Amino acid sequence: MIYAIITIAVLIILLYLTITSRAVFGAEAKGKRLERMQQSKHYKNKQFQNLTYTPSLTEGYSMPKVMYNFFFKKKDPLLKPLKNIPSVHTDLKSIPKDQDVFVWLGHSSYYIQTDGISFLIDPVLSSYGSPFKFFNKAFTGADIFKPEDIPNLDYLVITHDHYDHLDYPTVKAIKNKVEKVILPLGVGAHLEKWGYKPEQLIEEEWGTEAVLKNNIKITFTPARHFSGRKVKRNVTLWTSYVLETPTKKLFLGGDSGYDTHFKMIGEKYGPFDYAIIENGQYNEAWKYIHALPEDVVQASIDVNAKNIIPVHSSKFALALHAWNEPLEKVTRLAKDKNLHILTPLIGEPVDLNKSDNQFKIWWED
User: Which of 239, 316, 320, 347 could covalently link to 184 via disulfide, CB atoms 3.0 to 4.6 Å apart?
Assistant: First the structure.
């Protein structure tokens, strides 16, 4: 009997090693990269740490309960849309260089062009947000942008290495269009495995400022989340960013639960012309790592943003709420606080120089 158990265990280990050796799983940091990580004050016990204690699950929840609900609990009838997500296929390559625009590409992927410089943030342009093509399929209509639609880029920006933010097929496909990559500590190991050169990478930790082209500056700022592409968690850093240009200031929120870092960022770097904040794929069970809609509203107030663009919804079903609930809730809650929430269609350009952008309530159609 003992030999059978050992054999099964060995086979499971071999299967895991075979699967995770695929390129999509990336690479672990080593050498000088690992030394830099170990020197970070946010790296302890072989893991990166949040600023405050951050359990994976909220008090009163257990992993068996969460997994049972996810797989067996009756699903919301609108977990996935009943018809195609409305979207606009803007030709990103034809946008004049002197135009300052934001274009949401679905989920947490978006294109920013400002002060003559282009940025592509967390592009997931394959038809799935996972390491496997058959899992976590994109909603029809939300998947209209493909890697071939991406123009030449000054900067590719990555907030962390989860599959719905760092998509191997996309990042591999656009490699020859990217001049530089901005990404948090440790994540560069994945990019180098996928063919990017070390000198292309601006790989830093919270508090670091990097001077970019055209007098633009980007600062790595905290987020409350986690990371990992395999079983081991938090072996790479996660981040938000403050993007300052000669004409405007933007906060790129990245995945984050609510915490005091939003107020700290607002007091130190705000006010912001625009804050792009994650709103979706939340659950009370994991509110410490994904903000609930009421937390998104408070975070927007904390960072002192004139305009808020909610993302992280309307493409994948990674939680149990209705697909359109994030936008419905955050816009409703924001009205009571007199916040200016911008809700463009996927692909609909937002003029970053206009102060009166208005968009349809398209998720109710």
Answer: 239
3-class secondary-structure state, position 98: coil
Helix (H, G, I), strand (E, B) or coil at 105: strand
For the segment 238-267, what is each residue's pLDDT rounded down to a tens digit?
A: 999 999 999 999 999 999 999 999 999 999
- C-alpha–C-alpha distance, residues 176 and 26, integer Å: 19
**pTM flag (> 0.90):** yes
Identify the pLDDT of residue 9: 58
Residue 48 pairs with which residues in a beta bridge? 43
Tokens standing for 310? 């909610």
Per-residue confidence band for 74, with pLDDT thresholds at 50, 70 and 90: confident
Contact at 8 Å (CB) between 234 and 226?
yes
Q: What are phi and psi of 178, to 5 degrees?
A: -100, 125
How far is the C-alpha of 272 from the C-alpha of 251, rounded, in Å?
A: 7
> Tokens 């067996």 appear where?
72
Contacts of residue 18, Cβ cutoff 8 Å, sequence gap at least 6? none
Residue type, 176: N
- State the pLDDT confidence band at 207, using cuts at 50, 70 and 90: very high
Q: Tell me the per-residue pLDDT of 18-72, one tens digit each, with 9 for 90 and over.
A: 667 789 999 999 999 999 999 999 999 999 999 999 999 999 899 998 888 888 8
The stretches of the chain forming alpha helices (DSSP H) are 2-20, 31-39, 63-72, 168-173, 188-193, 261-269, 293-303, 325-335
**Which amino acid makes up residue 115?**
D
**Stretch 313-339: mean pLDDT:** 95
- The DSSP-derived string for 260-302 is THHHHHHHHH--EEEEEEE--S--GGGTTTS--HHHHHHHHHH
Strand partners, 163: none
| CA neighbor of 266 nearest in space, from 242, 246, 239, 291 | 242
Torsion of CA 80, 89, 117, 210, to 10 degrees: 10
Local structure of 36: helix, strand or coil: helix
Instruction: Tell me the two tokens of residue 40.
Output: 């970070």
In angstroms, the CA 203 to CA 213 distance is 16
Do residues 128 and 137 make contact, with C-beta atoms less than 8 angstroms apart? Answer: yes
Instruction: To the nearest 10°, report the CA torsion of 13, 15, 18, 24.
Output: -100
pLDDT at 171: 98
Q: How far apart are CA 218 and CA 214, in angstroms?
A: 12
